[in-house]
Amino acid sequence: MELRILGPLGADINGTSIVPTASKQRQILALLALYPGRVIPTTTLMEEIWGDQLPRRAHTTMQTYILHLRRRLTHALGPDTPTTTAKQLLATGHGGYLLHTTPQSVDVHEYNRLTTLGQHAFDQGHDEQAAHTLRHALTLWQGPALLDVRTGPVLTIETMRLEESRLVTLERRIDADLRLGRHTQVLAELTQLTAQHPHHEGLHSQAMVAHYRSGRQNTALNTYHRLRHHLINELGIEPTPHLQRLHHAILTVDPNLHITAGPRHTSTFNLYAA
Fold first, then answer.
1. Spatial separation of the C-alpha atoms in residues 13 and 29, rounded to whole Å
2. Burial category of 143 from C-beta neighbours within 10 Å (exposed 0-12, middle 13-18, buried 19 and up)
């Protein structure tokens, strides 16, 4: 079984998709796919698809949804896998249901493995390896997590967590590229990202440094002022001391801004940490 979360929901057995068209069954499959081999309590599944408005025959309806999913599994298994049944793959556990498959069958597992390796390389100062590994991790994304699944209260939290992880990984990959002196190569990407995330100080710090190193001091300063405007007018806060010190360094043409790599393996945002 192959499961895909990082984009449209995907689930294949022997090349045959088992993803249902019914929205509630898609929610159930998505939640089970996020935690392969782990029992997801029936109460959690019901909360996901109905919230706090449970129908009168919620348990019976849930069993019907599971039955429909198992029928799709049976069809995909076909006659070539007689030793494996749909009820074994989508099993009933203590108080819930689970997908009997390995974490390695889910794209999220490979993404998490690569981000861990990339972060370790980054912390050790192996910037080329970090940039390559984190870039590979990001290629696993085919769009927003569970792009074509209607998300209830449980999946909404899960997709928000994944999207935050994606942004952190992207920021760290850009950090590695900046430490490698690739400031001109990331300018267009950072221009788009700062527009999409007008309050994100990490991305703005990267854009400021990239513009400065590309000979665009005025653009770097304008990036700071645009961020400060958003923070003050929309959130009522000033930029953090890190950003304020970075802004001062750009104003005073601090020569340390041109050091792309050094003994301190840090993020761009922490260049001027206290």
1. 14
2. exposed
Crossing angle between the packed helical segments 217-230 and 201-213, to the nearest 10 degrees: 170
259 burial (CB, 10 Å; 0-12 / 13-18 / 19+) is exposed
Name which of 144-148, 151-155, 259-263 the model is least confident about: 259-263
137 pairs with which residues across the strands? none
Helices 201-213 and 187-196: angle between axes, nearest 10 degrees: 150
Contact 4, 26 (CB under 8 A): no
Residue identified by tokens 């206290």 is 274
Q: What is the pLDDT of residues 240-259, one digit of tens each?
A: 999 999 999 999 999 989 88
- Phi and psi angles of residue 210, each rounded to the nearest 5 degrees, phi first: -65, -45
pLDDT tens digits, 29-87: 999 999 999 999 999 999 999 998 888 899 999 999 999 999 999 888 877 666 578 88
Render pLDDT for 85-105 as a digit per residue (tens, 0 to 9).
Answer: 888 899 998 899 999 988 899
Q: How far apart are CA 177 and CA 170, in angstroms?
A: 11
